[in-house]
Amino acid sequence: MSQYNIPKTQSVAIVDKIGGTVHVNPQHPVRQPEDLALGECLVKMHCTGVCHTDFHAASGDWPLTANLPLIGGHEGVGEIVAIGKGTVDSPVKVGERVGIKWLAYSCLDCEMCLKGLEQNCVKAKLSGFTVDGTFAEYVVSWVQHVTPIPDNLDSLEAASILCAGVTVYRALKYSQTNASEWVVLPGAGGGLGHMAIQYAKFMGKRVIAIDTGKEKKELCKKLGADHWIDFKESKDIVKEIKDLTDGLGANSAIITAATGAAYSQAVDYLQCGGTLMAVGLPGEATIDASIFFTVYKSITIIGSYVGNRQDAKEAMRIASVGGVKCHYAKHPLSDIKEVYEELKEGKIAGRVVVELKKKD
Ligand SMILES: [Zn+2]
Ligand SMILES: [Zn+2]
Hints:
By secondary structure, this protein is an alpha/beta fold.
């Protein structure tokens, strides 16, 4: 019934218990086409990005519980090899290249979904968290939710647009910052940050990148950051930002860094009327912002959580016209344990993408 040869077993990266180590199981079952439900599709993966969230999910340091055993991953790109029997009006077809993002499924009909907050749907299914993710050769997803990948975009290039890209794109979209205004990006050299620089520049904003180390500095400068601040070398980050912005402060801070300190500092360097976009998801950190100055300076504090289907399409379109390029290192699935270690230590500049497609 399918033009594809779908094997019965596959390799997946799996975590058996919270806090356990990730390992590869080469004999994990593949859901067969005849077992797909209405609206489901089977995707043969080409590659998948690795996100900080995968590491948090496996370590259990979030106030949410993951499905176990856990197959992580939510930045996967692959080809649809089967669609559940009886599915009508599918927006995608067999053979099409699609992406699987964090929000794998939402009901599309509840108040949150209808307001465009699909990611907050009460029935939401999360890839690599509440349902099996993309660290697998074959993944079951939903035709209404997979993201079509533009033809001119390589799968490896597209992978990290699906989480890192969408997340920072949406935060910038809602940051209430106009072209030519100043955006500060703490954590600018990391997976989310390095894409935020490019989306911000594509939108015509001016960027102050904050991070540390020579490698991250070079990456941020190369990607178009107007200014660079090394937080380990700077004596006074707030003063430096004010000096760079005619004494007024920046218009917005998009905070991808995983520490609470980055959030409270933003209220000090934002200009009156500025916007603090909270994007990173540290497990336990809190925002310790001055209420007085948040009020007095008319600061807006907004949480922005990944993105909906439309945000994903827009983020992908910007990549397809060359506005954003993911800086990534390619690894085989067998490297996954080492990749988690490096993520934990914050050593990775840009992103890691795991290649899953076997040579034909
Ligand atoms: Zn992610
Ligand atoms: Zn819903």
